[in-house]
């Protein structure tokens, strides 16, 4: 880790909640809202989130599986997402969520009209805005955790929105 965390303190809770409480607590609330309030299906959500986790290289994020009502994506779903272009498992919306996540994170200047035509054939404008906000959250906070080395020092909480900072 690049930052000193007092012994016995959870690294994420300390860095986000105690080191910079005004910004960190607000960031944690935004991150929690992404998980608690998203209207995207679990498979679409995880296709996008797992893609960003892979791009960021965040160990914590790659290991995490979002749970909704006791349900997570199937074992091996991360492999399907990594191979979104050839996957026979992903539906059109999940495939587009993975593609959008990859392009948003790595080549956002080249999101062309042909892509948006495909995207809006499957997603409403509100869903695209929601997905984009989720992507921004995961890029920012996953990279923060990875760059500072928090991603290898953290224990997965039961639910990120339940983690009290």
Structural descriptors:
165 residues, AhpD-like
Your description of this structure?
This protein has one domain (11-159): AhpD-like (Up-down Bundle), CATH 1.20.1290.10. It has 8 helices and no strands. It has helices spanning 11-19, 21-37, 42-56, 59-63, 77-82, 92-106, 113-122, 125-147. Helix 3 (42-56) runs parallel beside helix 8 (125-147).
Structural domain count: 1
Termini separation: 19 Å
CATH class category label: Mainly Alpha
Low-confidence stretches: 158-165
Number of strands: 0
Shape: globular
Q: How would you classify the helix and strand content by structural class?
A: mainly alpha
The percentage of residues in β strands lies in under 5%
User: With helices defined by DSSP (H or I, 4 residues minimum), what is the helix count?
Assistant: 8
Helical content band: 55-70%
State the major sheet.
Answer: none
* Structural Rg: 16 Å
Average pLDDT taken over every residue:
91
CATH superfamily: AhpD-like
Q: And the CATH topology?
A: AhpD-like
Named at the architecture level, the CATH assignment is Up-down Bundle
> How are helices and strands ordered from N to C?
HHHHHHHH
């Amino acid at each position: 880790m690049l930052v000193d965390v007092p012994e016995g303190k959870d690294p994420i809770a300390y860095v986000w909640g105690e080191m910079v409480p005004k910004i960190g607590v607000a960031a944690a609330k935004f991150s929690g809202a992404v998980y608690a309030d998203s209207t995207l299906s679990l498979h679409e959500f995880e296709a996008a989130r797992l893609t960003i986790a892979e791009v960021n290289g965040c160990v914590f994020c790659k290991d995490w599986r979002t749970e909704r009502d006791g349900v997570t994506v199937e074992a091996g779903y991360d492999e399907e997402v990594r191979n979104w272009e050839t996957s026979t498992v992903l539906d059109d919306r999940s495939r587009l969520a993975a593609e959008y996540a990859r392009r948003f994170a790595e080549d956002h200047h080249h999101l062309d009209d042909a892509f948006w035509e495909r995207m809006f054939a499957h997603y409403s404008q509100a869903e695209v805005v929601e997905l984009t906000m989720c992507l921004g959250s995961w890029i920012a906070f996953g990279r923060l955790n990875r760059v500072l080395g928090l991603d290898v020092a953290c224990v997965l909480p039961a639910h990120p929105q339940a983690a009290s900072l």
